[in-house]
Amino acid sequence: MEGPHKVPDTDSLVSDFGRLFLRLRRIADAHLAEQGVSLARMKLLMYLRCEHNSARAADIASVFGHSPRTVSEAIAALERDGLVRRTPDSADGRVKRVSLTAAGEAAIAAAEPLRSRLDQAIFGALDAEERSQFRRALAKLDRVADALEAQGGLDERPGPAKAAPKA
Fold first, then answer.
1. What's the CATH number where 25 sits?
2. What is the pLDDT of residues 93-126, one digit of tens each?
3. Residues near 19 by beta carbon (within 8 Å), at least 6 away in sequence
C-alpha cells in the first residue's frame, strides 16, 4: 500500500466505472430513441416528476450541473413539444417554474416499461447478495460525495508546489 489513504487500484476502478456508466447511458439512449425520446429529455422529465411535477430552471441547472442557458434551451424544446409548461412562481413572479404537462406524464409512462426491462437486464445479472453489496457500496460513496460537497472539495488539493515563505 502506498500510504494510509491511497488505494492502488482506484484509477482502474474510476476508469472501469466511467466506461461502464457511459456504455449503459448509450444503451439506454439508443432504446429510448426508438420511442422518440432521448435519455437527457427523459431525465429532465423524471426529475420534474420527482419534484412534484414542478421546479425552477435554476434548480434544474444546479442538479444536473448544466449552465442556465443549456437548461433553458432544453426546457424550450420540451415546451415546444408540449411536454412541459413554464408558469410564474407564486412566491416570486420574476421566476418561472417548469411543470410537467399531461403529455410529459404520458411520455414518462410510455418509457417506464422500457426502463424496467433495462434495469432488469442490467441488475438482474447480479444475485441478491451482489445487489446488496452494490447498494451498500453506492450508499457509502454517496456519503463520501456528500462530505466532499459539504467541505467544498478535497482537503489536499493537487496543484503547483507552494513557494517557501520568505524569511
1. 1.10.10.10
2. 888 899 999 999 999 999 999 989 999 999 999 9
3. none
